[in-house]
Amino acid sequence: MSLQTVSSESPDQRANRPEDAQALEADTRLRDDIRLLGRILGDTVRDQEGEELFDLVERIRQTSIRFHRDEDRLARRELEQILDSMSISETVRIVRAFSYFSHLANIAEDQNNIRQMRARSAGKDTGARGGSGVLAETLAHAKAAGIGPDQLRSFFKSALVSPVLTAHPTEVRRKSTMDREMEVAHLLDRRERVALTAEEADASDEQLRREVLTLWQTNLLRRTKLTVLDEVANGLSFYDYTFLREVPRLVNALEDRLEEGGEQAAGELASFLRMGSWIGGDRDGNPFVTADVMRGTLRLQSSRVMQFYLNELHVLGSELSIAAHLADVSEELRKLAERSPDTSPHRSGEPYRLAVSGIYARLTATAEKLRVEITRRPVGKGEPYGSVKELQADLDVLHRSLISNNARVIARGRLRLLRRAVDCFGFHLARLDIRQNSAVHERTIAELMDAANPGMSYLALGEDARISLLTNELRSPRSLVSPFVKYSDETMGELNVFHAAAEAHAMFGADAIPQCIISMCKGMSDMLEVAVLLKEVGLVHPSGRSAINIVPLFETIEDLQASSVVMDRMLSLHDYRRLVDSRGSVQEVMLGYSDSNKDGGFVTSGWELYKAEINLVEVFERHHVRLRLFHGRGGSVGRGGGPSYDAIIAQPGGAVNGQIRITEQGEIISSKYSNAEVGRNNLEILAAATLEASLLHPRQSAPRREYLTAMDELSNLAFKAYRGLVYETDGFVDYFWASTVINEIATLNIGSRPASRKKTRAIEDLRAIPWVFSWAQCRLMLPGWYGFGSAVEQWIAQHPDKGMPFLKELYREWPFFRMLLSNMDMVLAKSSIAIASRYAELVPDEALREKIFGRIRREWHASIETLLDIMGQDRLLQGNPLLERSVRHRFPYLDPLNHVQVELLKEHRAQNPDEQVLRGIQLTINGISAGLRNTG
């Protein structure tokens, strides 16, 4: 199996294209890597499965390439005949081969991206030490704009950039396969950076073969369902890969850049980059996230960071072998060393080592006090730290002593990174959000209120009556909960979670759980209900203090439209405003990209989110409260995904304002953060975009009124088209469930959370992830574009005086519109109407099939045609040659998987009892997902 990249152009043609000239060498090296891995995979298939299967894989591969390169109809028929003639057993093995190609191609592509990233960094210089990453470029822009180091330090003092990892189930790979793939990536990287001897090169080849063979003999699919704590453990692995080391390095590197040019600013740079997590705290629709699970999550997080600190201290102790008779030490360092329980005579004259031993002993005692597991043991007993500040104080003693005794270069080594890590991660590692649906909070409060006030029916009260009742309750010192009342399991479960949050604050500090998020927030009472529940456990005090942020999540189109009115009223409410003021006059608001898209379509979702932000900025400025937006973005464009930098820069003026939180979900976490270098670059992108959006164009001129009007009109037209298809067409639900893998996705063990909120087939009750994932599998990507084409056509017909030239102006002049179309460009490039037509054949009702697929096909063509016209392109992704080549290279390997998936779906739905049929479907889902990359 000589898997390789393919192109519809010759190398000479590509070299003559200006945009590809510079990328040709990188493209060649990418092809070399893919050929190497493909050759090894082919050899593995031949050795393990036999020559006959290898030949079959080769026939399929070459026929698929012929069809794509030449659009050979005969090749398509031949391909279908080959695939249809295979046995189920052959099919499963073929699927595994093509799936592994997608995985290996991803590795080669990622390494190519790293190669180009390093080349850019080494090849350009913006005046900052170490080349020009995106953050260095942004700092150079700030300098050119007259923004000095002191102003930047002041900015970062109150800044917050927080990627928040979630357990949304879109990562189909097992950790076992990810580990092997990371080893393959490491071997490729070493070949790139190290001049290997002939013997070393042979050993590297053998190791690559060993890893690929291990992959081939490893289950691609999980055989058992993940538990929540499994998801927590998987999430924590990215701290080992990237965050624990790269977050401190990034902040320290930025600190160094700000000190260049001879300006020694006072004090250290604030640690503005903070990791967040939903894994183990997100209860919305997941009954398996309980109070005990949350406690277990916090212990696992703490255990990971404590173990990291202890390992670093262990190495630091070996490094700080400074002898007291050769170098002076400070008096406070001498006292710290004297308090050490380390009595070894070998270290009696080495005060730094003694001090580190004492810190180590106190930290192990702290871990024991927090009931978290560690593997290391101290040289003696120590007093537990009362808080992370005490640990920081001891490390600062080491730092000051080294600085004051002319050992700055030593202080800037491992000690500096450890001090920064402690500042970033504390004893809790990540800030865990707790989240629940507003309907659950409502039922909980209703039960408590009705029990405390006989004869009351809380659920029968109107909104104003609820607000009055809840605000009175907020002021009351009494407890609503009675020990003499037996409450429902749901209510007790909610109360237990809030009690666990209060325990976490006492044990790990307030940063352990700083946010309580309200899903499907629709009104003021939804927020006040949470405030009352928090009061029950002491996190909100009747005096008006709050130890936790209450965060509304506005998700549907209707809720986004109402968000500014709700927040205006909330900030005008004295009892709630006191809580906000107690939190530093900062109020976080979360915006949901996924459900708004499912509710109103891609165009309308994007526009309503943008308008909501404009309105929220105005409301918060009027109330003199700082707005922090939390963007609930998914991996796919249909769930708010797309390039993070572009998304942040395209925010309306005032919407970033130095603070931003963004969810990182599913397969996007592994693609961004499983490699430390790539992870560092992605963290830099978030920081740079936040800085640029806040300081370089904090009040960028608002779009012209006619732009806003045109976008409103386009959105309304796209909304009607999307709702008309998805929610108003008879039989659409049947079409969706028949023409996609929605049923079969539920059989994959990729997450602990159920696929639907309720046990119905209604689109309204379906979660956004399986909705988007299903459309990606059949290569339609419908949530990422549907409604755009017909909206543009109708708008042009209604405005013949402006027409297409005006829309081209919008694209040229307005970052928001440009980002919207750029994301659509990417989605449509990954779609295939020909492949999608095969899935439509799964719908048994021929009339329904023709009615609905006919509409989808017409809209698909219209969307591509209008998109290309507005963007001034001849083909999709013309302006992004790197991604264009990537997509084009993958299609010949994706198409056979789609074809096989359709045939296996037919067998499965015809009740074929062979268990390999369902396994084959699951494998195709894995392979297609890997080939498309951001699918959910």
Describe the structure.
The protein is mainly α and 936 residues long. Helix content is 64%, strand content 5%. The chain contains 39 helices and nine strands. The protein has a nine-stranded parallel β-sheet with strand order 3-2-1-9-8-7-6-5-4. It is globular and about 85 Å long. The model is unreliable at 3-20, 124-131 and 636-641 (pLDDT under 50).
Which SSEs are present, and which pair or pack?
Blueprint: H1 11-16, H2 18-21, H3 24-49, H4 51-70, H5 73-84, H6 88-123, H7 134-144, H8 149-157, E1 160-166, H9 175-193, H10 198-216, H11 228-258, E2 276-277, H12 291-319, H13 331-338, H14 351-369, H15 388-404, H16 408-411, H17 414-425, E3 431-432, E4 434-437, H18 438-452, H19 463-475, H20 489-508, E5 515-519, H21 524-536, E6 549-554, H22 557-572, H23 574-582, E7 586-592, H24 593-600, H25 602-623, E8 626-632, H26 644-649, E9 659-665, H27 667-673, H28 676-696, H29 705-726, H30 732-739, H31 742-745, H32 768-777, H33 788-798, H34 803-813, H35 815-830, H36 833-840, H37 846-871, H38 881-909, H39 915-932
